[in-house]
Amino acid sequence: MEEKKELLRIEHLTVSFAQYEKRSAKQGELPVIRDLNVTVREGEIVAVVGSSGSGKSLLAHAIMGILPANAAASGSIFYRGSACGEAELKALRGREIALVPQSVNYLDPLMKVGRQIIGETKKRQKLFCGADQGKRQKLFCGADREKRQEEARMRELLARYGLADEVADLYPFELSGGMARRVLLLTALMWQPRLIIADEPTPGMDLALAKQAMQDFRTFADDGNGVLLITHDLELALEVADRIVVFYAGTTVEEAKVTDFADETLLRHPYTRALYEALPGRGFAALPGTQPYVKDLPAGCPFAPRCADRREACDGEIPVACVRGGRVRCILYTENS
Ligand SMILES: Nc1ncnc2c1ncn2[C@@H]1O[C@H](COP(=O)(O)OP(=O)(O)OP(=O)(O)O)[C@@H](O)[C@H]1O
Ligand code: NI
Fold first, then answer.
1. By residue range, what is the domain housing residue 322?
2. What InterPro entries does this protein map onto (predicted)?
């Protein structure tokens, strides 16, 4: 079978925050993401699964080029085969890559919802048509017809997510949390980008709407686009994704096909197996202990303190191994272990 074309490839991404050390004017570096790898191909939904604080949102922000000012990133981000620096990412986020942010605070509080949904689409078209060619753009885009089409599409999307037309005339503060989430989601769908980065898109939605969102992601991916679905909900991810990337304490510990989750013995990393054991259908066996805070990360494997298979070599460097068509970062799969 022909390998699908890559949309996004992230290699060895590291994100650190500059911070002052206690009782000293010295600035230290706090790495919160370390050596992280993710790939999304055309036609794929890739789910990034990990518990709170594992670095999922920071990954989304690194891809969108919107990390906070005190963060420094290194590593490589490729979009459709081209390496992207800050400027390239900025251009892409207006056109090709859309974010469904985790926080509803991303809505502009001073602008009516409808204008925001359509405004984002306009911004994108401007980039396509050439920003400084105002008049030509009007002719080129057929302004009136275009506007009617956009409004019709917006109304269709609003209805699909159980929102009345009137919602377009509200300000964000007049929306409930769940309504605001739906607006963020349909804004991304409205753009028709090539890649959607959806950071916890469904909390606050009821089951039917969450299912609708997943179905829309599936259709979007089947049209040859890509979705990076960020979630702490493995069950949801298993329903819709093609591949699962498991995060633990700021790094990728495993990359597996969804079908690997049909049989526990196909899973590779002890943490992935622990997540699997915690699924409702598997008896909710919660893993004792907590994910370490980035400041207290042990050397070597961050999961080692909670791992039943722990051995001395876990304290050293752990390379990524390719196993059964997936990837794993665990000493059990390296030579001489
Ligand atoms: N601006 C910041 N300054 C310092 N540390 C930060 C900053 N933003 C995030 N972090 C730290 O980076 C780590 C990863 O945060 P991130 O928001 O990516 O987690 P997450 O996996 O998205 O969690 P959640 O599931 O709760 O949304 C956390 O330990 C967090 O404390
Ligand atoms: Ni997050």
1. 242-336
2. AAA+_ATPase, ABC_Ni/Peptide_Import, ABC_transporter-like_ATP-bd, ABC_transporter-like_CS, Oligopep_ABC_C, P-loop_NTPase
Q: The tokens 């859309």 sit on which residue?
A: 98
Q: Is residue 253 assigned to a domain?
A: yes
What's the structural domain count of the chain?
A: 1
The bound ligand whose nearest atom lies closest to the alpha carbon of 251 is 1
Q: Does the beta carbon of 34 lie inside 6 Å of ligand 1? A: no
Which residue minimizes the CA distance to atom 10 of ligand 1? 32
- Strand-strand pairing, 226-231 and 45-49: parallel
Domain assignment present for 154: no
Specify if 188 maps to a domain.
no
Q: Which residue, judged by its Cα, is nearest atom 5 of ligand 1?
A: 17
pLDDT tens-digit readout, 180-226: 999 999 999 988 899 999 999 998 888 889 999 999 999 999 999 99
Chain centroid to CA 95: 17
Q: What is the pTM of this model?
A: 0.89
Spatial distance between the Cα atoms of 147 and 119, rounded to a whole number of angstroms: 11
Q: Note the pLDDT tens digit of each residue in 3-50.
A: 789 999 999 999 999 877 666 666 778 889 999 999 999 999 999 999
